[in-house]
Design a protein that fits this description.
The complex is a heterodimer of chains A (351) and B (362). Chain A has a domain at 256-284 and 291-350. Chain A has 11 helices and 12 strands. Chain A has helices spanning 65-73, 106-114, 123-126, 133-144, 149-162, 168-171, 181-193, 211-228, 239-245, 263-268, 273-281; strands spanning 23-34, 37-49, 54-58, 80-91, 94-97, 116-119, 199-203, 231-236, 248-253, 256-262, 330-334, 337-340. In chain A, the strands form 2 sheets. Chain A has an 8-stranded mixed beta sheet, sandwiched between helices. A 4-stranded antiparallel beta sheet of chain A has the order 2-1-4-5. Chain A is globular and about 70 Å long. The two termini of chain A are 34 Å apart. Chain B is built from 12 helices and 12 strands. In chain B, the strands form 2 sheets. Chain B has an 8-stranded mixed beta sheet, sandwiched between helices. A 4-stranded antiparallel beta sheet of chain B has the order 2-1-4-5. The relative contact order of chain B is 0.13. Classes of the chains: A alpha/beta (351), B alpha/beta (362).
């Protein structure tokens, strides 16, 4: 399928593989086209999100975690294109393939903010500095819902209260520059949740803030999730945040999934050499001396991607004649725990 | 205060002694730029940096950790206070009183590494120029051949290929660039290196490489590090001693393991509790989530600056600023805290869930 596929707005072009899924991303490929060449930022990624679940997507810079989220919301930069794959989303009682929708069309505009909302790393970029936060939250509500200004105002105050703003009735008339960093983060969460979306995508929301504010933010997301029951996709490079917040995690490297499973499985029984390397390179908050072991080398340039398994150039388990030959298959090593590595199979015909 | 910081027998190993360091920035307003307030970025900070150790300055944004390091190297002149610098058995010199020419000589021994290797390296200079510049400025090389040889050695020291010395920074990844920045910092064989968030901008796998490289270089060259950082896990791995700063003051300072397992200041306890741990088993551990934001150094609360966020605060905390006091007995490694109730509170450190019962039993 290409980007020129069906355009009938709102038409159910496909069905979700299972009834209890909210989102199903199938074999997504998002590439960037520039003078220097093609960057395969996301290159065949598949994952599901159930209603009310918290999925983490983790990886280092250039792994495609942010591009994945931009693809779902169809807010890619101009030179980025979804070249293949499906993004199936439950929209009311039908299923929509977001990858096939017009990014500026009716369906996408209805879904953004109403069904899927996003919070960003830097709250100052999410808000306009010349409007009060109240105005912006009320605007969002009134775009998606048939309510009066007064009703929208009350909903906005209620949402500000839920995210723990100290004085919602007054805070609603404040500008972002009057708020402290922690309050801005809360206001941003209130804005994103104004229409009670089914899915919240959080892209590195705690990266630019201090440790104590990060702890507040994680607690807020936990509470709000328990309260409103929406699903969350948490995108971060910080494995600590993943362990603290999420139920399941997908680890990415250079546009590919390398491992996915429950947080317990992936953190306690990591199978992929990259996951193991990542976990052993982070210093731990544990008593006593814990050595760390870095992964050798650095992430290759996106214009000079390695052949075969993208990690083979840095891998300690590299098998010549296998790993550089072709993409490793995704293999299920335990219930719901999948690894993309030849160590666990798929190399029989190569040896 | 100075006496409390340096009891007899301690401080002999100090290579840098910071005493009562103060840095205020005026807040000006109106047409006449009248001074309407003061940002107390660093407010009476004293500590020793011992020869061969790694001392970490940790704290959240605006706590004064970077300003402190700038005041040590005299990139910013402090408002008040002294910074004594001593090499070997020579008499200590006070950097704050030095003239420019003398400072240049002293700075040969105190070098800095910055956070972002994309902005700290001039993109139009080759590695030879970047790393060789300090050598030329300080007249350490006589010929171009000698310069090339010295820069090659430095590249080898930071585990880079010396044949790359004619290349430009854009050809290198973030981690390699930070190695270049380290090579430049080490070009004059300094005694002290101040690393200001030197690994914060790097990916985790590369961050670990640089942390280990810094440790190896310290062993090989006998370097002393002042390690400015906000990531507590990184600091725990890298530092021998830790000074925790809040709103321009050191609130706690002690040996790393001791400070992390038995914190003596409620702010340290909260920081340790808030740091995310990459272990899903600790997901449901009890956490201390501080309310409110970091104190505004331009408008500090009275008494202890931390009292509005402190869960143990009492009336005394609102009125009196607690001094940094020694808590360990003579002969034991120093552990100081600036809390009125430091000796009475029983605070939780890392691994606290298991420790609670032990403490109850004791």
């Amino acid at each position: 399928m290409t980007i020129e596929s069906p355009r009938e707005t709102g038409a159910a072009v496909a069905s979700l593989p299972s009834d209890d899924l909210l989102l199903s991303v199938r074999n997504l490929r998002t590439h960037f086209f520039s003078r220097e060449g093609v960057v395969k930022a996301v290159d065949g990624v598949t994952f599901d999100v159930k209603p009310g679940e918290i999925l983490g997507i983790a990886g280092e810079s250039g792994c495609g975690k942010s591009v994945t989220s931009q693809s779902i919301l169809r807010i890619l930069p101009k030179n980025g294109k979804i070249v293949d794959g499906q993004i199936l989303f439950r929209y009311g009682d039908q299923t929509v393939d977001l990858a096939a929708e017009d990014p500026d069309g009716r369906v996408m505009r209805d879904i953004r903010g109403q069904e899927i909302a996003m919070i960003f790393q830097e709250p100052m970029t999410a808000f306009s500095p010349v409007h009060t936060i109240g105005n912006q939250i009320i605007e969002t509500i009134r775009i998606h819902q048939q309510v009066t200004k007064e009703e929208a105002h009350d909903q906005a105050v209620e949402m500000l209260r839920r995210v723990g703003m100290p004085n919602p009735a007054r805070n609603i008339d404040e500008f972002t520059f009057n708020l402290s960093g922690g309050m801005r983060q809360r206001a941003m969460v209130a804005l994103s949740l104004a229409c009670q979306p089914k899915l919240l995508i959080a892209d590195e929301p705690t990266t630019a803030v201090d440790v104590t504010i990060q702890a507040q933010m994680l607690e807020l997301l936990r509470d709000i999730q328990a309260d409103l029951g929406m699903a969350i996709i948490m995108i971060t490079h910080d494995l600590g945040v993943i362990a603290e917040l999420t139920d399941r995690v997908m680890i990415m490297y250079l546009g590919k999934e390398v491992e996915a499973g429950t947080v317990e499985n992936v953190f306690h029984r990591p199978q992929h050499p990259y996951t193991r390397g990542l976990l052993s390179s982070i210093p731990k908050m544990e008593p006593g001396r814990v050595e760390i072991e870095p992964i050798e080398g650095s992430v290759p340039s996106p214009y000079a991607m390695p052949s075969g398994c993208k990690f083979h150039t840095r891998c300690t388990e590299f098998m010549a004649g296998v790993c550089e030959k072709r993409d490793p298959p995704l293999i299920e090593v335990a219930g719901g725990h999948e690894v993309s590595c030849f160590l666990y199979g798929g190399r029989e015909d190569l040896e | 205060m100075t006496d409390a910081i340096q009891p007899a027998g301690r401080g002999d190993r100090a290579i840098i002694s910071v005493r009562n360091l103060v840095k205020y920035f005026p807040i000006e307003s109106g047409l006449l730029r009248r001074q309407v307030g003061l940002v107390k970025a660093v407010d009476d900070v004293s500590f020793d940096l011992n020869d061969g150790e790694t001392l970490a300055l940790v704290g959240e944004s605006g706590c004064g950790k970077t300003t402190t390091s700038h005041c040590i190297i005299q990139a910013q002149r402090p408002t008040a206070g002294e910074v004594h610098f001593r090499i070997g058995d020579t008499r200590p010199v006070d950097l704050t009183k030095m003239e420019k020419a003398d400072l240049k000589k002293a700075r040969r021994n105190i070098r800095m590494i910055y956070q972002d290797p994309y902005s700290s390296l001039n993109p139009r200079m080759t590695l030879l120029q970047i790393i060789g510049e300090p050598l030329k400025i300080h007249g350490q090389v006589k010929s171009q051949d000698e310069l090339r040889a010295r820069v090659s050695d430095l590249l080898r020291l930071v585990r880079l290929d010396p044949s790359t010395l004619n290349r430009y920074p854009h050809a290198f990844s973030g981690g390699q660039r930070q190695r270049i920045a380290i090579a430049r910092a080490l070009s004059l064989s300094p005694k002290v290196v101040i690393a200001d968030e030197a690994v914060s901008a790097l990916d985790v796998s590369v961050q670990a490489q640089i942390l280990n490289l810094l440790k190896e270089l310290q062993r090989e060259l006998g370097l002393t590090y002042l390690f400015v950082a906000h990531n507590l896990a990184v600091v725990k791995y890298e530092a021998d001693r830790v000074a925790v700063m809040y709103a321009g003051k050191i609130v706690e300072i002690g040996e790393t393991e001791e400070l992390y397992t038995c914190p003596k200041h409620p702010y340290t306890e909260a920081l340790i509790s808030a740091a995310p741990n990459p272990d899903p088993d600790t997901k449901n551990r009890p956490r201390i989530v501080l309310t409110g934001d970091v104190a505004d150094p331009g408008n500090l609360p009275g008494g202890c600056s931390f009292h509005p966020r402190c869960r143990y605060a009492e009336d005394l905390c609102k009125q009196e600023t607690p001094p940094l006091m020694e808590l360990s007995a003579a002969g034991e490694p120093s552990h100081q805290s600036a809390c009125h109730f430091a000796d009475r509170l029983s605070l939780a450190g890392i691994g606290a869930a298991e420790l609670t019962t032990d403490r109850d039993a004791a």
